[in-house]
TrEMBL record:
It comes from Psylliodes chrysocephalus. GO terms for cellular component: mitochondrial matrix. Gene3D superfamilies: P-loop containing nucleotide triphosphate hydrolases. Accessory subunit of the mitochondrial membrane respiratory chain NADH dehydrogenase (Complex I), that is believed not to be involved in catalysis. Complex I functions in the transfer of electrons from NADH to the respiratory chain. The immediate electron acceptor for the enzyme is believed to be ubiquinone. Residues 79-310 form the Deoxynucleoside kinase domain. This is NADH dehydrogenase [ubiquinone] 1 alpha subcomplex subunit 10, mitochondrial. Its cofactor is FAD. It is found in: Mitochondrion matrix.
Amino acid sequence: MSTFVRLGLKRIIQNQALNNNFNQKNVTFIRTITSKTTRMSQEDVSKPSPWPYNEKGYNLFNYFFDKTTSRLDENSKIIVVEGPLAAGKSKCAKQLASELDMLYLPEANLDMMYINNYGFDQRKLDSELPESCISWDVMDFLRNPKHRHTLRFQLQQYVVKLSQYIDALAHVLSTGQGVILDRCVYSDFVFAEAMFSQGFISKLGIKKYYEFRDNTIGELLRPHLIIYLDIPVPKVLENIKKRGISYEQDSKALTPQYLSVMEKHYKQNYLKELSKHSELLVYDWTDAGDVEIVIEDIERIDFNKYDAQDTHLKDWDHKMEEDWASLRHKYADKKEILMNYCNIPCFEVPELVVDAEDANTYHNVIEEAPGNKFLPGYNTHLGDTGTIFKMSSPHRNTLPLRERRTS
């Protein structure tokens, strides 16, 4: 009986989607991204309010009354600003987001993981933890890059970037608003390769890193556009010195050799591979370019110029309303399942192994930390109210928009 119901529902969905196609209600984008200035001169198109994907699920019933494509327009895009350290990516990405009316996501960092929903920084508990379980963030890595925790740090960086990119996809598909990221999960391997080249992580470690990557990266949709801000290594070192972040200036990791390997993998691997699927703009940013020129170049890109045989933007080529709904449900409602693909055994990598007693101590200490004892929203001693009327856990775990600390 359940089989007939399932088949019947699927047939209803398919028929509804076909009707949408015949009535020309399927998604049709204007060819180019447009700035706020340009959009102000255009006729205002009424769209549904953004779907509250952080608080509310998107199920089969919602599908019939809330079409994903009804919110999508020419600016419903994922844009990533890439480049070496101290290139000015954050400033450029923020300006682009403001001018294009998109959501800006700061570079994913471990502050997003270590600081909980109540503002408590779990790194304060390191003194109570065994050495094998202490926190290790970018400040620690740059000060002591050859520590055994460097591999764990890099894997956690990857996981946080993966989590953020899933959030970006959920946001675009649920609200229709585009997203601009300061770096993304696709380029994270350039850091791992640079670490491996300098002996900061082992051969077993880099193999395990790619096991994490290969197990998860195929679940995502590649960005529509990558903007690469190119500056030479000597200028990178000059900018690092100029911006005055002590743990960068005094770092044993940020050598010309390390930065050169990053540049090599950015240009010869990352940009080369992603340019087969995404639009690419590259700028000489040695003296910091003009963001207005970048915006003009973005507005000139025809995102609809590719045919069905082309690999460019293939991830985003969907004709059926059902396909868009499935993607929206996947990233907005099934994030926890996607993140579980990172649950990979690491017993063969010594630097990732923690003995049972240390692990038990870690869990006991972390679970008693302020804000960790109960689920978010249920910690009455920290000000949460109305817990007696709450019947479920938070809908999804969305990363906070938290900039990386500089001191």
